[in-house]
Amino acid sequence: MTSRKHYILSFLLLLGIFFPLSAFAQTNEQKALEAKRERLQTEIRDINRLLFAEKKERGTILDQMEALDKKINVRQQLIRVTNQQSNLLNRQISANIRKISKLREDLETLKDDYGLMIQKSYQNKSQQSRLMFLLSAENFFQAFKRSQYMKQYTDYRRQQGEAIATNTDDLARLNKDLNEERKVKEVLISQNRKAKNLLFREIQSQKELLATIRQNESKYTTSINVKQKEARKIDKQIEKLIRNAIAAANKKSGSKVSNSSKFDLTPEAKLVANNFTANKGKLIWPVAKGIKSQGFGEYRDPVYPGIKHVSNGVIIATDEGAIARAIFEGEVIAILAVPGGKKGVTIKHGNFISTYYNLSDVYVRKGDMVALKTELGKIYTNQSNGQTRLKFYLYEDTSKLNPEEWVFRL
Questions:
Q1: Domain boundaries, the chain
Q2: Do 33 and 88 touch, CB atoms closer than 8 A?
Q3: What angle do CA 154, 158, 161 make, to 5 degrees?
Q4: Is the pLDDT of residue 351 over 70?
Q5: How far apart are CA 376 and CA 365, in angstroms?
Q6: Residues paired with residue 393 on neighbouring β-strands, in sequence order
Q7: Helices 140-215, 217-252: crossing angle, 10 deg rounding
Q8: pLDDT tens-place string over residues 47-62
Q9: What is 223-406's CATH number?
Q10: What is the mean pLDDT of the chain?
């Protein structure tokens, strides 16, 4: 009987401790995947809203190609995440099936044992009463031991009854969870099927655009050259402004080096720079709402992979009328006005510099001290394609930084 009692207590311990912890870990993994899937779905909706018109694609063929390329990439990520969710559910379903099988076996064992105990208890009761069992003891010590035995026997029966009830409840719960998981899996499979169909249509659209572009290769090449020339002009202007700002700041602070590639920081500027560094990966977006339409660094042309482009910052697509905002406290050291281009604002954060370009209106002036989220200016909306894009750059002194490593989830 002692071994059976230990079995019951161990079984209850497993039900109360091990199972919930295992289920909790799986639930957290599922929640993380679902959160990632929702972010990707939101990004696809934003791409459709910000890079495409309501009913048809808009902008130049080059704009359409870049937008399709980004949407296909995000759609592929979405399909991968949905597959991961489905695989996780498969593992959970298999684990629950195994648990249900084990619980059914344990339940049968408990019921058989409990039935045998009740049968023996009834037989013993018919031969002599509890009172007679105690009175027939040879001495007080034996009567006390018999009393303790009867109490343990009663407790054991109660524990077995509770174990059966717990086992039955857990079996019902697992069956319910299993049914829910199968329903969720069916929904995921259906959504993934739709996503794959959309991906196929988007790839077909991309192929059609490729054919159109290759029919007029010279026009496409000209468009690329214009974009690259404009980007180089902006980059040179920003770098020139930064070097001038460094020279002016060092001269003002009495530094012996009047023309350096690095700021000679004051104690106050060092504090700002240290705070900026401490927020790496946590800085806010330079717009309240938007999507990254072009990342930092070298990337291949979507039409001719042999052609490589270089981006010294990131491009963020946002809504018409959107406002650029400061990502950190600092001092406005320059207002950009590229001939034939748009306006921009450059802010110094210690020895870090953030630049916000492609503004139609500017709300700050050189020398202004700005706080986090200070409105810097209205972002320009291209009337020919309806797109509103902010070009955002980040430097440490004169060294280019990847804003994607500094701004939260950029």
A1: 2-215, 223-406
A2: yes
A3: 140
A4: yes
A5: 9
A6: 355
A7: 120
A8: 776 666 443 444 466 6
A9: 2.70.70.10
A10: 76
